[in-house]
Design goal:
The protein is mostly helical. The protein has helices spanning about 15, 30-35, 40-60, 65-75, 85-95, 120-140; strands at about 60-65, 110. It has one domain. Helix 3 crosses helix 5. The model has no long low-confidence stretch (mean pLDDT about 85).
């Protein structure tokens, strides 16, 4: 049986800062803490949610035109990615872990869509991160998963 790969990319804000949604992998704090206790189905449910939200946000701003180039670039930069997930999830990892180092996305087989082409990549990455955090937090709240902070 194949072990489900963790979405962790080494930028955890749930354990270090107490965030409800991790700024790195976008798991909820309780998912980070309980990950090793989850069965394969529960892990896949988490990955599917993260993938759905990531693709929704990133595909509106980017086009991945070469999965091969993106994969090769991630490997060269030693940036973790899950090959079972969408290349847009890989791109998210690149934007998070390669922040400040990546200036030419074409090298990675990625193009910024015209509506976003004039925005600085660091600013765009920050907007994407904020959108993903808001979307994940809204999902957490909607389904009553958020801990009571009162």
């Amino acid at each position: 049986m194949q072990k489900t790969k963790t979405p962790c990319i080494g930028i955890c804000s749930t354990t270090s800062l107490g965030d409800l949604v991790c700024r790195g992998c976008k798991r909820y704090g309780f998912e980070v803490i309980n990950w090793n206790g989850y069965d394969a189905e529960a892990k896949q449910a988490v990955l599917s949610r993260i993938e759905k939200f990531t693709v929704q946000i990133l595909s509106a701003r980017f086009q991945v035109f070469s999965e091969t180039a993106l994969k090769r670039g991630l490997e060269q930069q030693s940036i973790p990615f899950n090959p079972a997930l969408s290349p847009y999830c890989w791109l998210h990892n690149l934007l998070k872990k390669g922040r400040g180092q990546v200036t030419d996305l074409n090298h990675f087989g990625v193009a910024v869509l015209s509506d976003y082409a004039q925005i600085d990549l660091a600013v765009l990455a920050e907007q994407i991160d904020e959108d993903l955090l808001v979307l994940n937090a809204a999902h957490l709240e909607r389904y009553g998963l958020a801990p009571d902070r009162g």
